Model the fold of this input.
Amino acid sequence: MFKKSILMTLLAAIACNVNASISSSNYNVVPKPLSVTEDKDQPFIITASTTVSCMSGGEEMKRNAQFLTDYVAEATGIRMQAAEKASKQCIRLVINNKITGKEAYRLSVSKKGVTIEAATPRGVFYGIQTLRKSLPTVKVDTITLPAVTIADEPRFSYRGMHLDCARHIFPLSFVKRYIDLLAMHNMNVFHWHITDDQGWRIEIKKYPELTKKGSWRPETVIGNNFPLFDGTPYGGFYTQEEAREIVRYAADRYITVIPEIDMPGHMLGALKAYPDLGCTGGPYEVATTWGVFADVLCLGNENVYSFCQDVLDEIMDIFPANYIHIGGDEAPRDRWAECSKCQAKAHELSLTTNTLQSYFTNRIEKYVNSKGRRIIGWDEILEGPINKSATIMSWRGISPGVEAASKGHDVIMTPNSHLYFDYYQTEGRNGGPILIGGYVPLEKVYSLNPIPDDIPADLRSHIIGVQANLWTEYIAYTSIVEYQVLPRMAALAEVQWTSAAKDYPDFLSRLSRLRELYGIYGYNVAK
Done:
């Protein structure tokens, strides 16, 4: 009996060793590629002697080659080497101008090698992500890649993910880690929310009080119990150089950083620093609770427009994105109705209190346009006459986006019913974190159709993208950020990228492989 036990242990050890030395890849990835065709050729074998070559594309392609070698090493332990010239056992990264679409790619595997080709280095990067996600996630000596041809391109040109760093600020290192998640999911926009009532988080050199006074709140409400506070000052901000570092880090991964400087509401951080910008003159305090506050920028005060333009000048210098997000949501009109300056401005322009914000938005947009940029605003800015060049983020459902498209606006669908990742993932808390409320399970994210079937054909082209949002009123820790976005970010990626018909069971089977990759990097994933 003893000898038999020893024999079984040895056999098990041998089996484990074999599994650890060689493993096969699987192309059932998230998001699902447009076309996957299995070929009859023999597989390609990756070992430590395999090289990655890029003979065109300059520094971007060299960086892509380095990404690929790092990804393979992180997942499997095999460290390939980048090389300018192709070898017999090689993964080739190729610029092919015959491929249509700047984000499209073609991945082909045969006995002779692997080729990832695209019209741009950006397209090659997405091909690399697909290869990366097909790899085993155990330490091995050899990887078998079955012969295949994958032709792929995204459904939407704008594929975004949002992070609120105003309610709670997160370290620069974590913002980069978050951007790495976006890259893994084929996303190309990082929407960075950096100012709000609870704190101003970006250095503006012309207005130093914004971060000296406006970035700190005296305490924070505890959970959902508004009479209870922690009694601890909370604050911090990103310097302009730190913000530029994030822009560079994201750009290397083909991700554009769009900053949000919310105006004219959600401005208590700015009003604390410069009280003359408000209708009452203050005093104001940085908010210690969550919600919507009556104190907003005074739209009858010309200094407000100078302030906003000055701030936007520095923001546009830091962030080269084509879009600047100016918020525009949840701006109560109570103070404007009571303010003599605002009423005088409304009378001068033949406006009402309810349409005064439209004047502000159009004036700010005209200024942003003069700098060669465009604005994005939340769907509340549709409540008055707005220039067609403004892009609308539809957060209060799908219908505001349809309305915006009918008026000639480009639209990014981000309905809270499906894409607010600060909402619960389960119907009960089940021991999870205390959150703001709501209920958005994984399957509901996956079920979203950003372009409803009943939208007229001539409006469909105005739906340019999809984004999920993570507001952080109740999310103070990086581990909870990860818990809230994973694995829902995978379902979002499928909505953004894949044109194929929905198949939730098939998605779940592919998600199981992606969860293994999350584990390699130690992400905190909701179960």
